[in-house]
Amino acid sequence: MLSIWKKWSTKGTLFAEKPIYKEKTFTMITNSNPAILVIDMVKDYFDPRRNLKITPYARAIIDSIKDLTRVFRTNGWPVIFATDSFKEDDFIFSARMKPESLEGTEGAQVIDELERKPEDFWLPKPRFSAFFQTGLTKYLRERNVTICAVAGIATPFCVLTTAIDAICYDFRSVIVSDCSAAASEEIHKETLHLYTKTALYPLLKVRTSSELLSDLGVD
After folding, report:
1. Whole-structure pTM value
2. Direct distance between the N- and C-terminal alpha carbons of the chain, in angstroms, rounded to an integer
């Protein structure tokens, strides 16, 4: 959405009227080269002993993520699993967060249900964004990726920070709404609502998996 301000001068002073908005319709370029980034679908967050609020919501998106990654593989597009890989004495655990998904542990492994393939790229990450100190930018540029589709958990944290960082590194970004989840349906929907159409649109979009594939020209 573009805004144009009208200005006029009265006694040497500039005043601004309310902006005039011109709505434009944007479509995804069908020959763009996408990658899917599946965020933090690791065993610790699905362990029933941890009794995490997000677990049932994360389980509910497994099949949707599997379907989407299958389409990406079929089209030869990169499938990336970016997962928390923390250290027990990390700074972030000095707040309310408890140590979880620790580097080198079984709990930091991608869940079996997602059936990670040998050709998929597994990217352990030391913080929330998949771009933070991981070399992801180089990996994407080497493959001429232009669009990052972001899925996984949690919508208002690692999914969002990854989607925003993608823009910071000059990639288009799509939060895949039906392949992402938060600790409640309300939090998930509120986060998506905030970023559905911002000043960054259409560089940053919120789309369902079906809408994303349609944008990419997949029948």
Report:
1. 0.84
2. 29
